[in-house]
Structures
1.
Amino acid sequence: MRPFGFDNSYARELPGFYVAWQPAPVPAPALLYFNDALADELGLDAALLRGAEGAAFFAGNTLPDDARPIAQVYAGHQFGGFSPQLGDGRALLIGERLDREGRRRDIAFKGSGRTPFSRSGDGKAAVGPMLREVLIGEAMHALGIPTTRALAVAATGEQVYREQPLPGAVLTRVAASHLRVGTFQYFASKGELDKLRQLADYTINRHDPALAGTPGRYLGLLRAVAERQAGLIAMWMNVGFIHGVMNTDNMTISGETIDYGPCAFMEAYDPAAVFSSIDHGGRYAYAQQPHVARWNLARLAETLLPLMVATDDEAAVQAAVAQVTAVIDAFPGLYAAALLRGQRAKLGLGVALTSATAADDAEDNALAADWLSLLHAQAVDFTLAWRRLADAAEGKGAPLRALFAETEALRAAAAEPTALDAWLARWQARCARDAAAGGPGAQARAAGMRRVSPWIIPRNHRVEEALAAATAGDLAPFQRLLAALLRPWDEAPELAAYAEPAPAAITAGYQTFCGT
Ligand code: AMP
Ligand code: MG
């Protein structure tokens, strides 16, 4: 197949970090999904790729001449236990492409057959989970959250065997890179220092080129990853996203969200929310995510330490340990600052975003925390609550009150102000102070809030409904849902069905699955 304009820097510069491998041929390629906007970003020929040639490529049957498919090796802590070798068990990096803005993007297959890293797995993927990755990833992208993205999903025409036979598919994933914390762990745990240094320098050239060649570059890399992850996790938290499997092999160096397996969006606010069928201890529950990120960063720090000190000199080792510890210890502060920035935007506090004092920080942190406690106490839908708060900023309080039905009933009976009233009074006073300091008027405030708190998120029941239909051969519900997810901010009446929470019974029993 004619060349795609691929580069292959990973394959070229990092021999010994992968195995050259070919996708398994499949019987009947058919394109189920193609991302025109992303193809355009990548400068790819969309017209060509939408046709039969595209289907053959996206199913892994015919590769462009400049593809150099490889299975990358990595390790990882899974649920806290270390696996010294994981690697691409059902994925292949096909090539890289410089997009229209000059950014290097990996183009990779998922579900393209067994590799030397498959262990007991079949190397395959089913249509449902691959389209799920499209839906959640594109929703995240529309929400402005850094993420790997789906370029295409091709049906293979063969069955994969899970609990029952399912139609098979290959996903084509685009990522800033597939470098993970686990990639560093693989070489660190084997004590291969030269390779580790090569990996770190490759990573720095790719993601933090300003650090290249500087004496403090490995510490700088750790700091940069910590900053990206702090920003990323804060964004997850502010839309109610639960990743579900934050193993170190699923945490990127680039700061993109990766691996949409057992993830889900929270409905009723609950810090302990967990949907993954295998997360029995709640290790990756909603509120655990910033703590897990820090834990994962500490694992990355351990891999970088030997690069920072070339000698056995005890004092030098201690100094390096102190430096990386300072970065890890700074993570909660970075995260808290990023979270508060996002929460302020959601609370409509425009001026506070740019010129807050320490006292403002304390006040606004308490304001946000108390709001979330109110949602938790009454199991209020997280997404709708923020959205209806924007209405309240314009003086329309009834829709918000309707979400707090229980205390509203009490209020009517006892004719007494509720906890919600007390909180709203504090918030309104804070907004008034923000306005007096140059902040927006009521309508502009509400509009600003609606630009950061979505109306549409991938509701679990809608996702499942769309995937069940797609698995049975009907793509229409998937396409309609995707179209809605691409417009998360505007309250378009025709999208109302996608904004409604799932019936409580569905959410209570909802489970998501890994590696499917
Ligand atoms: P994940 O849970 O998707 O992050 O995957 C963890 C590890 O299991 C990675 O090394 C994957 O490549 C591997 N894996 C997941 N599913 C399969 C499969 N069906 N066949 C082979 N390897 C798999
Ligand atoms: Mg993974």
2.
Amino acid sequence: MKTLTFKNGQTIPALGLGTWKLKGDECVRAVSAALEIGYTHIDTADAYDNHHEVGKAIKASGIPRDALFVTSKIWPDEQQKSAVIPACERILSELGLEYLDLLLMHWPDRSIPFADTLGEMEKLRAQGLIRSNGVSNFTVHHLQDALETGKEFVANQVEFHPTLNQKELKAFCDEHQILMTAYSPLARGKDLDLPAIIELAEKYEKTPAQIIINWVLAKGMAAIPKSATPRRIKENWEAQNFELSEEDVAKIDAIGGANRVVDGTV
Ligand code: NAP
């Protein structure tokens, strides 16, 4: 299992399970299947309304807390100074956990100074309620302003897949040692039928999803594909078991595009 290291020295398993849209028993089943297969990194968010179910699956797995990596995110309505710490405390109580490995600002909101939210996250780190903090859906100009606050943040979770490969944002994050996590890495299924992906799947005798996930990992990023289907959860996990050649990584890089599948409502 590949791990990546944040600039603060903490590590994150490169491949995690996304949980958007997973609710109720389906969520418990999917997270339980993932933990059984070997995933240790689970991505949730307040907006997904599934903390209880994610927590239930974690508890039932019996996996020691320090072997897991759990990310959650706070929505802009709780990013103001007075709301951040209570929001995190509530998230932890819903998950039944003592701490989060990573807490993200889910979307930027220019009406709330980044320094306020990041400053409160600093206090959460000092209190041991989170190990690391980061941002999500930040563009280069948001990141520049966040960096100017002088407050620590180590990760940016953004939409990233073959038809939206965010070259400038990736270069900026690399330059500033901000680890990028690819959300919607399969473009919610839309990039699985691309001719170049199908061709590579045939060449490596892998599935299109495995080719795309392997490509994200080859770029030094984390990936959090979501699936409710145990067979696919396993298939995605096995995307780590081979290596695309540099030329084939470049072939996928060359696809490019501006095909956004996420509109800011989750
Ligand atoms: P995704 O992972 O790109 O795609 C999920 C879709 O692909 C589901 O319909 C799933 O179907 C299908 N799928 C999964 N594995 C497959 C496989 N091996 N073969 C064929 N189809 C497969 O999209 P996403 O859920 O939007 O993104 C992943 C995670 O990123 C989310 O769950 C969430 O944790 C995170 N996210 C974060 C943000 C943010 O603002 N920070 C925004 C969006 C997403 P089944 O479930 O039916 O198997």
3.
Amino acid sequence: MSTPFDHFNFKKSELQVEGVKLSEVARKLGTPLYVYSKEAFLNPLRTLQAGLKEVDHLICFAVKSNSNLAVLKMLGEAGAGMDLVSEGELYRVSKAGISPRKIVFSGVGKTAPEMAKALEHGVYSFNVESVAELETLNAVALQLKRIAPVALRFNPDVDAKTHPYISTGLKKNKFGLNRKEILNVATNIRKLPGVSFNGISIHIGSQILTLSPLNDAFERAKQLMLELNSLLPSPLTFLDLGGGVGITYKAEKAPSLEKYCQTILKHFGPKAKLKDPIKLLIEPGRTISGNAGVLVTKVLYRKQRGSKDFLVVDAAMNDLMRPALYGSYHDIQPVDQKHTKGTQKKTDIVGPVCESSDCFASDRKLSARLASGDFLAIMSAGAYGFSMSSNYNTRPRPAEILVSDGKYRVIREREKYEDLIQGEKI
Ligand code: LLP
């Protein structure tokens, strides 16, 4: 279970990460600024690796959660594979030097050209979500005279009990195939000579806070696997159990990764005594990247409207969309510890964009003395932060830095206005 303060905490009256003061980097590089910690990324990865060590496994980091090249390279060097959802992400992971055999290609709407690219690249699996998609992949593979390795995404109809926008495992959701459809594909697999049906994949949602829906989904996947093994010419070789384990943003108690691994092993480990050997894949995003980053922003103005206090900051919804899009909670900490003491006042922390949804937090208790020039850290911004950012309001996206061993380096420069108009014609 990762929390916002595992790696970012107050030392010598200042919010720091691995010995680097956030105020110092903010002053030097400007704000808004994404700051990541190497240790914070690697810790959960190592816990997962240790938890699954007794089985043949591959941990495929969900690239969509944080797709910075340096992050991908660092995780790849630590043994991670990658879970992609687009040709763009394939481009990124190739640049980051990830082995094709450690790549799975997920996503509900892969195009034929994307399939061809990934096939030629030699990915480990296409996680296919519909019969129509499977037929397209079959045709693409035959044309290229290749066999596409495939896992069918099973929608187990399990309620992940998370935000409806990020719940994916119910039959009303657009994701995956049901049991009947999958069995039907298996019966008719000879009609699709361009694909090799090797596995099943599941992913029931994101920010899941109890293991019981995952446990149910794993059991259903296992039953389906056993049924399929009795139908197919040769047994399935892998199961991809998806991602989705939640983290602590506020005070919620997220599952421990050790317990998550034990739940996996209960169904698929040595004690489950499965007849045929099976490789296990998982696709964690948020558990690895969520609490590995913060967004540092500067207070521009304090203003009052009626009884309400507002802090207008220089980060906006385009830099970190989650609060505007899902009403998500992110803890907000003053970078200078002196502001954690003294009178605290209910405050709205808002960005400069002309939309009321450009609000990072409402009625948050923060120091009444916070004023222009003070820095704040928006916590738990490492997952779906920068990767979902945009240039709305023609705002250049923030720089990103990675801290490791007490040093930091810029892993993405702040965008310039020239970057923003590239490709436009007048
Ligand atoms: N695998 C598949 C097929 C997925 O669709 C996702 C996330 C993951 C793995 C990784 O899930 P994670 O371990 O990160 O929960 N933008 C939203 C989250 C969307 C998640 C989409 N799929 C947010 O900011 O909360």
4.
Amino acid sequence: MRRRDFLLGSAAMAGVMGAASWGSARSTVQQLTIQTARFAFRERPTDGLVSLSPDAPPPVLYGTQGDPMHLRVVNGTEDYTAMHWHGLRIANAMDGVPYLTQMPIAGGESFEYDFTPPDAGTYWYHPHCMTMAQMAHGLTGVMVIREAEDPGFDSDQVINLRDFRLDGNGGFLPYYTARGAARSGTHGNVLTANWLQAPVYDHPAGGLVRLRVVNSDTTRIYKLHLRTGQARIIAWDGHPVEIDVPLPSVDEPLLIGPGQRVDFAVRMPASEGQTADLLAELPGQPTRTMAQLRSVGANQKRDLRDLKPLAANPVSRPDLSSAEMLDFVFGWTPEGGPPNDGYCGSLGYSFWSINRTPWAGDAAKGTGPLATLKRGKSYVLRLRNESPNLHPIHLHGLAFVPIRSNLRRLPPLVTDTMLLLKDEVAEIALVADNPGDWAFHCHVIEHQKTGLAGYIRVT
Ligand code: C2O
Ligand code: CU
Ligand code: CU
């Protein structure tokens, strides 16, 4: 594949307060307490954050492919909530979508999420009730599901990219605007990696690092590349990449929409103090350093070719010859009535729609599924963007493969989120192998919360 054809979508802190573990090794329950937090992004501390500890970002949660996880989410706030595990193909009842798969968790209540991740890779978690309010104030964290067999890296680095919208005193600016919600979303102004600005992480010189980059922002489509030639893309949206994907560059950065992830294998520079950098292109600004990996210690003399390919996850491959085609149109809403918000918050508007129907809110009664799929059958979903804005379209519970676009060649990479470009009509294929009602929405949260949402039923 020629480079120009290719446009993709175009520090562990477990054990800190709020993420306590107990119980026997076999069935450890990890308690996650949603609570208000305070943290200094710049000189002055910011109050009113939402995290899982009083003074730090939500921790990286670790699991192992095929091993049960027990996560007890305690709501230590006064708002309702529900936690979603983005990209994990687990039982519908554990998916964390209010009204669709569970009732919202009230303040002081808890919900136990028990599931077994079928796939290894880089995933993440975020609330799906009060979604915009809680995510914009910090509640987005990374999940690492380890391979049953160690793939042989010297170290691992998680980078959670997300922005905050702060004033000069460190206080929060309004976390959404009607103007933004009706266009590309309201962008933050403090860009962070793991809540830090351009953090530097030490890794063994000449060693092989697995760099897991997650875009957990509510709005921003990041344009990324690395400053080092010694790297390879090894996974996309959690799933191993089986084809040769060119490394992004300053001229052709990787587009990674809200909700998306990319894993790089990075060979650290040989001499101590040298860095490999994660860089972002921002409109009208010089290239921004998001994070740096710095070489320390003696040269490990590893080689990218030492790595064997990651084993594919057990995702069923769709049978295109028998697949039924279903159409979905993403655009403005013709109506624009006020949404019905239940307990999960509303932005007060309907701007967007799927198939010309705005999702009237999380608690919407009488809103049926956008489509009903038969369990075990293959489908092609034709996604048409009739708006000038980009939409990272995310489907819960099922993995899919992009197969065709009117604008570009799409690499056939297994994913859960398809970044739909302006005027794009893209086809994605899947096997409907996980029963339940699966949320299907734009991951620009202001779009999701103002109509660009719905669900697909698998029976
Ligand atoms: Cu990460 Cu319904 O979303
Ligand atoms: Cu999801
Ligand atoms: Cu959108």
